[in-house]
């Protein structure tokens, strides 16, 4: 009876980790595609390397590697791979919880940092429009069109060079701009989706804990049965 339960646990780990591997590989592929075929920059100059493409590549690589270890370790009943899977999942979960705690503890400092960096990014966008550099310009246009906002705080951030993406109407005649700044719009959007984000993080932590429990259960079974390292 116990052997059948362990086999069920083993193949459940294989299936779940294979699904996670597919998700990670898809995310990694999407990140590489965006990097090769799209021009992306970061609206946060201090974190310029963390644009959409690079973020997807990092997430995809981490998920793919960890899920591969879990899949292969469970399938081959390899203690070394199972321990590696457990340790990496534990480190990942601690990092996630640490980031969540840091964001709660230093909320005002993070708020000031992002607002200041967005202002610097907007200044760079104004310069790029003068010199024909379209990368940062396109990023700001995307944000302003998506969130129906203008500038960081309001339209005055653009001075006299207000882009058409700030216009309420397509023709922009007479000129009428979105009254609210993008910073408050984006912040409000995050606050409205805070519950969903929190539930997602909790669900992710539960999956990671279950993965660690399954890995340790299999590890202990292999150790007791004397199968050793395969």
Describe the protein.
There is one protein chain. The chain has 230 residues and is mainly α. It has two domains: 2-106 and 204-225, no CATH class; 109-187, Cd81 Antigen, Extracellular Domain, Chain: A (Orthogonal Bundle), CATH 1.10.1450. It is 74% helix and 0% strand. The protein has seven helices and no strands. The protein has helices at residues 2-37, 52-76, 79-105, 107-131, 134-147, 182-192, 194-225. α1 (2-37) crosses α7, α2 packs antiparallel against α3 (79-105) and α3 (79-105) runs antiparallel to α7.
Per-chain topology:
Layout: H1 2-37, H2 52-76, H3 79-105, H4 107-131, H5 134-147, H6 182-192, H7 194-225
Helix pairs in contact: 1-2, 1-7, 2-3, 3-7, 4-5
The quaternary structure here is single chain
Structural class: mainly alpha
The number of strands is 0
Number of domains: 2
Sheet with most strands: none
Unreliable stretches covering 5 or more consecutive residues: none
- As a whole number of angstroms, the C-alpha radius of gyration is 24 Å
**Averaged pLDDT, please?**
83
């Amino acid at each position: 009876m116990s052997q059948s339960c362990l086999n069920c646990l083993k193949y459940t780990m294989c299936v779940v980790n294979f699904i996670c591997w597919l998700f990670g590989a898809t995310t990694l592929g999407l990140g590489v595609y965006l990097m090769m075929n799209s021009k992306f920059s970061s609206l946060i100059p201090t974190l310029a390397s963390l644009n959409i493409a690079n973020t997807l590549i990092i997430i995809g690589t981490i998920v793919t590697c960890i899920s591969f270890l879990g899949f292969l370790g469970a399938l081959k009943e390899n203690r070394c791979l199972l321990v590696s899977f457990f340790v990496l999942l534990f480190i990942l979960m601690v990092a996630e919880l640490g980031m969540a705690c840091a964001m709660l503890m230093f909320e005002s400092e993070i708020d000031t940092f992002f607002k200041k960096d967005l202002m610097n990014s907007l200044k760079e966008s104004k310069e790029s429009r003068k010199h024909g550099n379209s990368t940062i310009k396109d990023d700001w246009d995307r944000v302003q069109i998506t969130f129906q906002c203008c500038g960081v705080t309001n339209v005055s951030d653009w001075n006299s060079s207000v882009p058409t993406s700030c216009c309420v109407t397509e023709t922009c005649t007479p000129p009428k701009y979105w009254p609210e700044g993008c910073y408050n719009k984006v912040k409000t959007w995050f606050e409205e989706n805070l519950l969903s984000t929190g539930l997602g993080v909790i669900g992710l932590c539960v999956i990671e804990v279950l993965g660690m429990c399954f890995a340790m259960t299999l590890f202990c079974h292999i150790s007791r049965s004397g199968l050793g390292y395969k």
